[in-house]
Amino acid sequence: MIHSAKTMRCLSADNVAALVAQHGLAACIAGIADNIAADFKRWQEFEKSSRLATHSPLGVIELMPIADQQYYAFKYVNGHPKNEQLGLPTIMAFGALCEMDTGAPLLVCDLTLITALRTAATSALVAKWVARPNSKSMALIGNGAQSEFQAVGFHHLLEVTEFHLFDVDYKATDKLLRNLAKLGLKGRRFTSVAEAVQGVDIITTITADKTNATILLPDDIKPGMHINGVGGDCPGKTELHADILDMGPVFVEYAPQSRIEGEVQQKPQDFPVIELWELLQGRHPGRTNPDNVTIFDSVGFALEDFSALRYVHDLANRLGVAGSPALIPSLPDPKNLFSFMPPAL
Ligand SMILES: NC(=O)c1ccc[n+]([C@@H]2O[C@H](COP(=O)([O-])OP(=O)(O)OC[C@H]3O[C@@H](n4cnc5c(N)ncnc54)[C@H](O)[C@@H]3O)[C@@H](O)[C@H]2O)c1
Predict the structure, then answer these.
(1) I need a labelling partner for 147 at 20 to 30 A (CA). Which of 79, 156, 243, 344 fits?
(2) Residues lining ligand 1, CB < 6 A?
(3) Half-sphere exposure of residue 8, counting CA atoms within 13 Å on the CB side?
(4) Calpha distance 167→165 (Å, rounded)
(5) pTM of the predicted model, to two decimals?
């Protein structure tokens, strides 16, 4: 019997935003972080692959599939740093959570907002494990679409209260300052990266430029800092000076993908990295000394979207958000697809 269309949900960007608002942004980021932690702890149960990336001179389009025995999930996502000039976001995404036993899509939804939530959730989760305990201040370098969500994630999961902001685009920082104020969070504008990172516990780099940038230089890094490098996520698109990667343990999501796309693309193939599952399963000690520098070389892995899709699916069920159920035809006789055709006029 074909899977009933009644169990299927199609959530638009508006539906997803309403769902997040109803449950609360911070609660959603925390809930997604819990799912991500739970899923990385059972890493061995997943069929994993590096994402399929199709490049053009202006950006990249990626397909990110992953599956366990119960669910298959994928995300479509782009990364086009110059899109703002055309009135489009740098990152746009949608995806699906499907049932392995039948192949039926259970949830198809916008993932643009959810990508920001799951990225913030992953960043904050990793920092919770390896940043210095009682970290209270963070520099946010790059004040675009993702930045508010990073601030909320770090505030609610780590109690970070002081945000040092820098962006080459003055208006982006204006926007972030306004939005942080609405959230009851305090941001402070700086006029250079070097000034913004002075004295902070955590540095998040989350800029967008299709180039090997050196947003952070070795001199910017002081003992004890945690670096959350998010914007280097494509071949030829990095943010950290390569020598920074020698300053402390480098944590990655999935090494085969990170070696192509992450900061570690600047290093030889055998450069030592620790995959997050090793940390979360207790196979790596993480930070061993308050003076350690720790580095999360984030590129975004399909498992984070799998965890987020599971979260959205459960939340929509719990809150009874129906969305539109009509993505796949519901057929009384599964062999009579023709019956689904409207009568000819
Ligand atoms: N690792 C992940 O999981 C993940 C997830 C989502 C996004 N990303 C990446 O994060 C980055 C930010 O995404 P977004 O949606 O916020 O993009 P965005 O275009 O909305 O914002 C990027 C900001 O970076 C600023 N910027 C560019 N160069 C800079 C520089 N040299 N110094 C300071 N600021 C600079 C831009 O002015 C812009 O305000 C992108 O590179 C994206 O690919 C990674």
Answers:
(1) 243
(2) 79, 81, 90-91, 115, 119, 141-146, 166-169, 172, 206-209, 213, 215, 230-231, 233, 298-300
(3) 20
(4) 7
(5) 0.96
